[in-house]
Amino acid sequence: MQGLMMQQPLLVSALLEHAERHHGEREIVSRRVEGDLHRYSYRDLARRSRQLAAALQALGVGQGECVGTLAWNGHRHLELYYAVSGSGAVLHTLNPRLHTDQLAYILQHADDRVLCFDLSFLAIVEALAPVLGGRRLVAMCDRASMPPSVLELLCFEELVDAQPDGFEWPRLDEHAASSLCYTSGTTGHPKGVLYSHRSTVLHSLAAALPDALNLSARDALLPVVPMFHVNAWGLPYAACMVGAKLVLPGPALDGKSLYTLIESEGVTLSAGVPTVWQGLLSHARDIGAGFSAMRRTVIGGAACPAAMLEAFEATHGVQVLHAWGMTELSPVGAVCSFKPRQYSLPTLEQRALQLKQGRSPFGIDMKIVDADGRELPWNAKAAGELMVRGHWVANGYFRAEGSSPIVDGWFPTGDIATIDADGFMQITDRSKDVIKSGGEWISSIEIESIASLHPGVASAVCIAARHPKWDERPLLLVVRKSGAELGEGELLDFIASRVARWWTPDAVRFVESVPLGATGKVLKAQLREQYRDALMQG
Ligand code: ADP
Question: What span, in angstroms and rounded, lies between the C-alpha atoms of 389 and 363?
Fold first, then answer.
């Protein structure tokens, strides 16, 4: 027998309609490329998104066609999020930090009809000229700021202003594509993950839950994670769903700018990768200041080092929500929030727990398997490849229908993890980054986290280097804090007293900086290549 309940499609436009009706006055603040701080409300966002949707239709963008963006976190980008997906087209966010060749590949692979860009990225768009073909180019600014260019550019504000406010969001199939994001593709071509309206709305519902990001109308939310990287972890959607104040940092991602924005806008919750928080924390340390309203921060995209956890929690009283995810998971797959009895654990045990990536919200299943695909126990010791399935997990890649990544209904993440009896998952490595010493795995993430605790260490990266006896041994690359006089022996002793003897790196190399990829993560493959024979002499 069928239930007798309404069938309402789960649509991205419904999030905006909800925000307009129930949180119309709530503010959205954007640091713009123009340099100013722009303010308006969800009501304004809804109106301008409708006008923009009409403008895109007038440009000939059809349902299912892609609209590309090269833009920072700001109100115009947010309008595109809703106008494009809401009208049935597909929002394709391009990562401006990718190499031009990769951008050219992605643009052609997705066949974007329109490309909208912030003025900071004009040079990139011009470099893409050979592959732009008949695509319409929209500069995200007003007429007065339109730059001179060899390309034929349309003006975003003129397109919006030319339309009346009468656009009606179509009632789409909830399984229709809403947005598209390519993985950075460290090997081979980038692969497109094509989200649906349904997966996006379900992901937002789960991400906002109290045991996930705990997002509510009371929050002022600062997504530092870029809107060009996995939909800024879904926060632009979740913010509409709950009516949180949104604070969008634009291009100003240095520690000082972020700190000023957090304080002046009363940000209560922020979200970003560890590398941006490093800048924020060192600015706060330099000026000897704390955070007056910020109570929580979501750290994900790469493992949160122990020293960063300690700085937020102990020095600033900011709760760290360590989270794990991937482009293929929309991205939230796990969040580390305590179960009731864990609130009374000693601080040290709580901190150790917080370094885990956490447990799945409803809607995501996970398991770990050995090399033969056999499921491993949840005992916090057995490490194996993490497999996931769920309502917002990719079932295949865009325009690559012939080759499915799925194994018996599960998506193999390429991450190596343990899971404890409470269901808390901990990533020990990416499978391609593991260090295999004499047949046993050493967790590079754990070594890095421990090294970060030394007061002389600004950042640490642990990689596998070839070894004549053990095949591979850990080599530690360290950027010293400015003024620190840390030596190799001292650091190795520090690490040796905190890990199993054979996990201690064989050597330390002090470096000026480490290379970062397009999403702010350390390019370990490049470092492995550079240092692969560093332990072979002698
Ligand atoms: P890319 O593969 O393009 O870098 P993603 O942003 O999708 O893009 O990266 C997902 C990967 O990032 C995960 O598979 C995992 O290896 C890593 N990752 C994400 N969050 C964490 C975390 N909290 N701790 C450790 N690794 C993480």
Answer: 8
Determine whether 328 is an active site residue. Answer: yes
Q: What is the reported pLDDT for 186?
A: 59
Report how far apart, in Å, the C-alpha atoms of 391 and of each of 10, 156, 194, 362 are: 13, 35, 13, 10
**Whether 183 is catalytic:** yes
Residues 74 and 120: beta-carbon distance below 8 Å: no
Q: Which protein residue has the closest C-alpha to ligand 1 atom 19?
A: 301
**CB atoms inside a 10 Å sphere around CB 213:** 27
Q: Which residues, in sequence order, are bridge partners of residue 430? A: 415
pLDDT at 185: 60
Q: Residue 395: helix, strand or coil by DSSP?
A: coil
- pLDDT at position 517: 87
Q: What is the pTM of this model?
A: 0.94
Q: What is the pLDDT of residue 403?
A: 83
Q: Which CATH superfamily hosts domain 12-196?
A: ANL, N-terminal domain (3.40.50.12780)
Q: Which residues of the chain have pLDDT under 70?
A: 185-187, 538
Domain boundaries, the chain: 12-196, 432-538
Q: Output the residue whose Cα is nearest ligand 1's atom 13.
A: 326
CA distance 479 to 265: 33
**Residue 538's pLDDT is what?**
54
Exactly one of 100, 168, 339, 436 is catalytic; name it: 436
Q: Cα–Cα–Cα angle for 252, 256, 257, nearest 5°?
A: 30
| CATH number of the 432-538 domain | 3.30.300.30
Among left, alpha and beta (phi > 0; psi -120 to 50; other), residue 334 is beta
Structure token pair of residue 137: 């180019």
112, 90 Cβ separation under 8 angstroms: no
The rounded Å distance from CA 321 to ligand 1 centre is 15
Please tell me the distance from the alpha carbon of residue 320 to that of residue 357, in angstroms, as a whole number.
11
Q: Do domains 12-196 and 432-538 have the same CATH topology?
A: no
| Token reading at 152 | 């034929």
Spatial neighbors of 498 by CB under 8 A, at least 6 apart, are 450, 453
Q: Does 472 qualify as catalytic in the annotation?
A: no
Number of helical H runs and strand E runs in the chain: 16, 24
CA distance 168 to 53: 9
Q: For residues 51 and 172, what is the distance between their CA atoms, to the nearest angstrom?
A: 19
CA 273 to centroid of ligand 1, rounded, Å: 10
